[in-house]
Amino acid sequence: MADSSSAAAAAATLLERFSSGSSVKLLATALAVFAAILLVIDKLIAAPVDPREPPVVKGILPIIGHWISVNTSYPGVYEKLARQSKLPVCTIPVLNKKMYVINNANLVQSAMRNKTLEFGARIEEIGRIMGVDPVIVKRLVKENAVEEISRVTVSALSGDNLLSLNLNALKYIGNRFNEVRPGSPLQIDDVHHWARDLIGHATTRALYGEHSPFNNPELVDAIWTYESGLGKLQYGWISKFIAGKALEARKKIVTGLVGYYMRKLDQGETVSAVIKGRAEFWRSFGLSDIMLGAMDSLPASSTVNTAPSMFWLIVNVFAEPKYLSRVRQELEDGNVISITQEDGRRVATVNVPELGKSCHYLVACYRETLRTENTVTGSRTVTSKDTTITDHETGREYLLKEGVEVQWSASVMHKKAIWGEDSEQFNPGRWLKGTPEINKGSKESFVPFGGGKHLCPGRNFAFAELLGCLAVLAVGFEFEGVEVPDHAMLFSTSGLRSPIYGNKSSKATLKRRPGWEDVEWRYR
């Protein structure tokens, strides 16, 4: 208590001075008083830290410093913390709680493998964001339903089910490309919005089938409005005032989905295995069709990261001639596109599974896009009991206390020195070097899809969708006027940065490439 008494005494002294002096001195005194009060409160309510826990890194302001940074400077706060502290893992005070932040790749891998680290309380937070009854959310946690639905999802996104889903999405994309006729180029006002629309429609059509509620363009647009306010939907009644548009967008999406499930359209022949499997599970769990619509997270989770990934992949490749030339050469020289004659016209068919196996530079462009633009934050909570994680390079073990949240940022992992001196730059060639450093980096420091048992189940769907899309664009089309904009994190809940155009143009022209004007594009 000695520290608290001295801080209080200091605050009292400052208050005595508050009645005299210039306005600058008054302001400085007020700030000092405020800081002193925070210091006193910090001493009274700060969460205790065991010496075996990761070292503590204090914020600029006691109590609220890290809370402000985490909520206003995402993901820069993690990059700054890693750079300034130089600690592999640290403890940061957040109000009257604490949080562990991991900055070391092999510790991240250790955390992802640790079975004691779970989503825990985050499920309740996600439930609030989705507007799900808290009673139902607690039942989901208690009866382990989240683990079960994850298993259903993983199973439905593998093997023939995955290939069918990929081909259905790419069929839509191919049809959109085929609508661009020779001599009639497509004028695009905003490449980012165009990519969002393309991926949004293709993905939802593949998931929900021919009677998808997202055949209504307003519902696809609602996905992006919903995403923009996602982080503000966890504050109960306050959300009505700070995220009104996002709430209205969620209402539109849920209304469309409820109608879809009530009419049992999820049982149609063209519906994906993942939608059928999840709906069957939730009904067997006793949930109504209304709750199925409210709890369906796939419209957002399947698009909000894939669409911006597609955008950044397109602009980075098409804006740099040497990248585009190499991608084209690899595709044209490889055994991935077959040309046939059908009713007097040429048909070019892309072998989707072969793209990932044979087109190493194309895959490198995809991976580099995720490395440079993906900023997803991994988050787990230490559940059931205290646990430890081990830095296998130094042998040091760190205690993690039950109930404390653990976070790590892809933005930090993807800028590690292991990627080279040009880690801030887009350079697909780094993935083809095959050096021990890159091999190690790709295994430990490349974390756009999480890891462990929480590895993103839709990663292979997104992989095929994006490779297939870029393959046809690169070989069959010119994308004139494309520029790489600056980027920033506009939404803390987004997994990728958003474009900031500034003086650069968002417009582009999509037209048929000479020699490929008469081709109809298909996928197999």
Fill in the keyword field for this structure.
Cytochrome p450, oxidoreductase activity, acting on paired donors, with incorporation or reduction of molecular oxygen, Cyt_P450_sf, single chain, iron ion binding, 3-stranded antiparallel β-sheet, alpha+beta, CYP450_monoxygenase_sec-met, 5-stranded mixed β-sheet, 524 residues, heme
CATH topology of the domain at 144-374 and 448-523: Cytochrome p450
Any idea what the radius of gyration is?
26 Å
The shape is globular
How far is the first residue's CA from the last residue's CA? 72 Å
Beta-strand percentage range: 5-15%
Assign the CATH class of the domain at 144-374 and 448-523. Mainly Alpha
- For the biggest β-sheet, the strand order reads 1-2-10-7-3
* Fraction in helix: 40-55%
Mean of pLDDT: 87
Low-pLDDT parts are: none
Task: Figure out the total of helices.
Answer: 23
Let me know the number of strands.
15
The CATH level-2 architecture of the domain at 144-374 and 448-523 is identified as: Orthogonal Bundle
- Largest beta-sheet characterization: 5 strands, mixed
In the CATH hierarchy, what is the superfamily of the domain at 144-374 and 448-523? Cytochrome P450
